[in-house]
Every structure is written in structure tokens, then in C-alpha cells.
Amino acid sequence: MPLAEYPDHDGQPLQMADVIYPDWPPPLEVEPEQTTTRPAKVDPFAKAWTADRLMAETFAPPRWAVPGLIPEGLSLLAGAPKAGKSWLALNLALGIAAGTPVLGEVDVDPGQVLYLALEDTPRRLQNRMGKILGDAPAPAGLTLLTEFPTLPAGGADAIRGWLDTRHDARLVVIDVFAKMRGNSAPGVNPYDADYAAMGRAKSIADQYGIAVILVHHLRKMAADDFTAELSGTNGVAGAADTIMALKRPRGEADGVLHITGRDVDEAERAMRFHPDNGTWELLAGPALDHIVSGTRAAVLAYLRKVPGASPKEISDALGEDRESVRKTCTRMAADDQLRRTPAGRYYPPERTETPGLWPAVPGVPPSQTPT
């Protein structure tokens, strides 16, 4: 049959193109209309203050986990291995959870505490708490875990979930931070990685208005500024609201807690560890008086009574060898334990400590500061 005699579906003769390309031309496809979603415009000045409005505003004072020492926000508690920083953190956690005085006699407001003891076992925690508590009952307000996901791998969200159901929470302790920080993103420089890791913990403290303590390590190499001894880059110190460095000579009971921060007075506080019951005590007076001994202690004690004395006057008063006292004074001045005038007279170091046993609490009337 000739091609023209083959009917199509409509009864019309087929054409050659219909046989070779039966579906030609294809139906016209109309592309869907492209819509572009623009990000919402954010006004960076929406929360701006004018100086007069800011000065006229009334803000609530910061909440304190330990008045004068640990305010709300992100705190670092650093120390050398086996310096006793975990004992100190556990002391604070137990006291706050029970609402009992800590560090000797400073009163704290009670509240629930989360303690992530990631370098301990349940048995070790039980032994340590038994030492600290003695005959006192264990507080139900202290939650302890020895395993936990890192902050970027769900740990931060898990802590938030715990806080969401405990509106009376006052403290979260992460011991140690290295176990919780997680891995850094590839290609990120060390400073940015440290700052970002700290920021994950700080965002929790800021969101809930509580204190978060990160137990951390100090480097072996000493520095004039104790914040430079923190393990890691300056991003660690830069992101923290409060930095505490616990230093205790190996085998000694007495140590020094160096403190600085945004809401605390910079200070050096003398500390004493009691190994028989695992407790830390904050001591009265300048920290230096508790960490020097022998001839140095005698020289310092004399100069506190008679400032401006010469080595000869000191040696005569103490009945010590004059040359030995002169060398001791020279070494103490080099260690910033004494001040020396060009005329060769010596004075006690300038006190950086807040008068009294406890540091002042910024924003709180003096009558409310623990005494």
C-alpha cells in the first residue's frame, strides 16, 4: 500500500515524517518560573545603644556560682597534672548542689549541678566524694557522668536538654575540656579552632545564665602572665570570661589560685589542700606569705613590719648572715617577691589581692560580699 494510503489515528494520510518521527514535534515544555528567595534583610543597628540610653539602663547583677570567684559565664580552671584541680571542681560541685559553704566558709546559693568527669571512673568518683562528704549526705542535685559525646557531636545539645528541664541549675563542670572539644575542621588555623571550641561552651553559659567551668591544663613552661601558660593558643584565653590557674608545688599543701576575668577582680588567692578529707580551703592574707619559706619568709615578714629596710638592717634584726640576706633580697626582687629602690632599700610587693578573705563581688553592695 502506498505510504499515503496508510491512515493515521485521525483518518488522515500519513506523511514520511510521521513514520520516521512518530512523536515529532515534541510537546512544548514550559519551564517553571524561577523564584529566588532572598535572605531576610538584617539591620545591624537594630540593637544599637546611644551612650545616654546605655548609661540610664538598669541591668541585673551577674549570678555567682561562688561569690567573688566564679560568676555566670565561661570559666577556665587550669592547672598542672595532679595539682588538685579536679578535687577543687568536685568540692565546688558538691557544695553548690547541697547549698553548703565551699572553700572553707563562703556561702553559695543551692542549685543543680552537672559534672562531666571524663577522666574518672564511677568507683573513683565514689571514693572522692566519700572523702569530701564525710558523714554528710550526698546531694541529689548533683548529676555525674563519666562518658559523654563531644560538644560538636551532640554534647552541646544534650547539655541544653538537661538545662531545659532544670531551671534551678547553677553550674556545669566539664572535666576535662580536651575530652569534649571535638576535632577541628580541616584547614582552620589553631587560633580560630580554639576560639570556636570554646565558643560552643560559652554559648551554653550565656544562653542559660549559668556558670560553666572547663577544667584545663597548663603548659610546663612558665610565663610572666599566667594566662600565657594555658594549653593551646590565645584563642582559649580570649574566649573565656574568667580564668583561674591553680598552682601548687609538688608535695606541698599550700598553693595559689590566680584569677582574672571580665567580672572578677584580678587577684592571687592562697589555697590549702587537705589530703585527709580531699577539701580545698581559701586562706586569708597575701598568697605570697603562704608559699615562701625559710629565709625568704622571715625577710618578707620583717619588711611587712618595717618597709624600706636595707639588707644590713634586715640581717641585724633577724640575726642572719648579712651576705646571705643580701643575696636573698636580690633573688626575691628578681622573682617579684620584693620591690627594690635605686638606693638599695626593700619593700613588700604591691598587693594585688582584695583586702579580706574573699575577693569583692562586682555589682554587689559591700554588705553582701562574704566576709
TrEMBL record:
It comes from the Bacteria. This is AAA domain-containing protein. InterPro entries: P-loop_NTPase, WH-like_DNA-bd_sf, WH_DNA-bd_sf. Residues 336-371 are annotated as: Disordered. It comes from Kribbella orskensis. Residues 362-371 have a biased composition (Pro residues).
